[in-house]
Amino acid sequence: MQRISRRTFLGGGLTAAAVTVTGAPLLTACGSSGADTSAANLAVTLPTYKRYAGVAPDLPATDRVLAGFLRYPAHPVRAISEKPGDGKPISFLTNIPGAIPPAAGRNPFWQAVNERLGSPLTISMASNDDYPKKFATQVAGGDLPDLVNIPPTTVELPALLKAKCHDLTRYLSGDAVAKYPFLANIPTEYWKGCVFNGGIYGVPVPRGMSRTSLPLYRVDLLAAKGIKRPAPASFAEFLDLCKEVNDPKRHRWAWTKPPTDYVRQMLGIANNWAQHGGKFTSKYEQEANLEALEATRRMVAAGVVNPDAFSADASARKQWFNGGVAVFDLDSFVAWNQYYATNTAGDAFAVDMLDVPGYSGGQGKPWMGAALNNITAFAKSAKHSVETMLAVANWMAAPFGTEEYLFRKYGLAGRHYTLEGTDPVPTKTGVVETGIGLQYVCDADMALYWAGKPDVAKRQHAIQQTIAPRLLFDDSYGLYSETMSRKYAQLSAVLLDVENQIVQGRRPVSSWKDAVKSFLSQGGEQMRTELAKAHADAARR
C-alpha cells in the first residue's frame, strides 16, 4: 500500500483542552490520555479499498505515480443511477481557490448540481486566504453547516469532531464502505487522516502525489530568452538560471516567493518528521537548515524574488505567475492544471516543472505531497441521515472517465465547455460558474489530464516517474501526538516568521539555532517522544 505524506493536523484523538483556528478559541473538551487515544485510533479498521475498474488510463498508475489520460473517454459511464439527496437543502462550508462564482439563482451550473443531487446545495464559501478565519468564526458561533470542510489550520481538531460531528465508523469501516463504491475507490491510506477519537470522523479529499510541490515555470517566458527545458545540476546553476530570467526593469522577477523548501529538498532535509530506528527528527532541527536559509537569503539579496512576496497573499502570487510578473512558482500538480484553467496569456501559455538537483550536484530528495487537502465532517445537527450525506460524498467522488466526473468538473456542454473531439474544453463562463468548491466535499484521486493538451498529461506523468523513487515521506503520518495536535501550528508559525526575517536579511542565519531550541523546549521534544511511542505501538500491531 502507498505511503503518503500529509499535514500533521490529521492524526488526532480526543485529548485536548481547547480547539483553535489561527488563535481563535472554539471549544473546550476533555478526554482520555494520549496513549489511550493512540491505541484506540490504531485499532480502527479502515475502509476496504476496491479500485474502480470502469475506465482504463492511457498512462498507468503505480503506488506513487498518478494515472494519466490523453483524452476524455468518448462514451463516459453514467455510474450512479439514483439521486443521492433527500429533497431537503444540504448546507456546506468551504474554501475555493478562484474567484467567488455567481450565486445559485444566477448560476446554471449550480442549479444543475441541485437537480442532479436531488437536494439544493447551499454553499457558504471564502477564498483560500480568508477561509480559516471564516471557519473559526462560524464554529465559534456554534452554527455548523451539514457538511464541513475542515481546514489544515485547525488545532486540536479531535475535540471539535467529538462534540459536533458524526462518528462514521460503522458506515465505512472494513467492507461496510462497499455500499458507497466511489468512497471505496479511495485508497485505504488516505482514510488514516480521518481517524480521530478511535473512530472515522470524516471523508477524505485525497491529494498525495498531486500535491507534491516543485518549481513550476513558464515555458513560454523561458523560450523567449532561448531557454528550453532547464535542468540545473546544483544550487549554483539554479541561482544562475534565476538571475538569467530575472528582469525587474520589465516588472518581471524569477520567483513569486523565496523557494526555501525547494532548497531544503536539494539538501535532503526531512519532509516534516523523519524516523530512524524509532527516533523522530524534525526537519527544523537538521543542521542543513543553516545552509538552506543562507542560500535563500542570497537569492533575496540578488533580487530574484518579487520584493512584494512577503506581504502578498497566495492569490496575488498566482496572479503574478499567470500574468508573467514571475517565471517560477513553488507549487503542485494541482496548481499546474489550475494555471491552465486561469490562463490569461493565450495559446502561447505553457507550464512545466523542474526536478530537484542535489545542492552541490547529484539528485535531491523531493517531498511527497500532503495526503489530504482536507476532510469533510458531517455535523450532528444536520437534518439528514448519515446515509444521505455519505451518498452525496460518494457522488462527489466518482472518478475520471465517468459521466458524473465530466459534469462535476466541466459543467453543461455548450455553456461551460465545448467538445474538441472527445475533450471538454472549458469556456470562460465555465471556469467562473463551476468554481463552487464541490471538490472539497469529497473527490477521487487526481487524474493527470488537460483537455485538448495531451502533452500536459505526458509531461506530468514523466516528471512523477522521475521523482517517485526519490520521494521523502512524512514519517509522522498516521501517528497521533497530543502535543502536536495542540501546539504544532503555533510553533511552526513562529519558526516561519524567523525564517522570513533571516532570508530578508533582518536577522542573522545563526539566530535559527535559538529559534529551534525554543521550538523543541516548548513542545517539539514532547512531540518527538509521543511520535516515537505511537510508532512503537503501531509496529507491535
Structural overview:
This protein has 19 helices and 18 strands. Helix 10 packs across helix 11 (288-301) and helix 18 (482-503) runs antiparallel to helix 19. The protein has 541 residues and is α+β, with helices and mostly antiparallel strands. Helix 2 links the parallel strand 3 and strand 4 (121-127). Residues 1-32 have low confidence and may be disordered. It is globular and about 60 Å long.
Structure described in brief:
The protein is α+β, with helices and mostly antiparallel strands and 541 residues long. It contains 19 helices and 18 strands. The protein has helices spanning 34-42, 108-117, 131-140, 157-164, 169-172, 181-184, 188-191, 219-223, 235-245, 260-266, 288-301, 314-323, 333-341, 386-396, 403-410, 428-433, 454-467, 482-503, 511-540; strands at 18-21, 24-28, 90-96, 121-127, 147-150, 154-155, 195-196, 199-200, 203-206, 213-218, 253-255, 273-276, 279-282, 326-332, 351-353, 372-378, 417-420, 423-426.
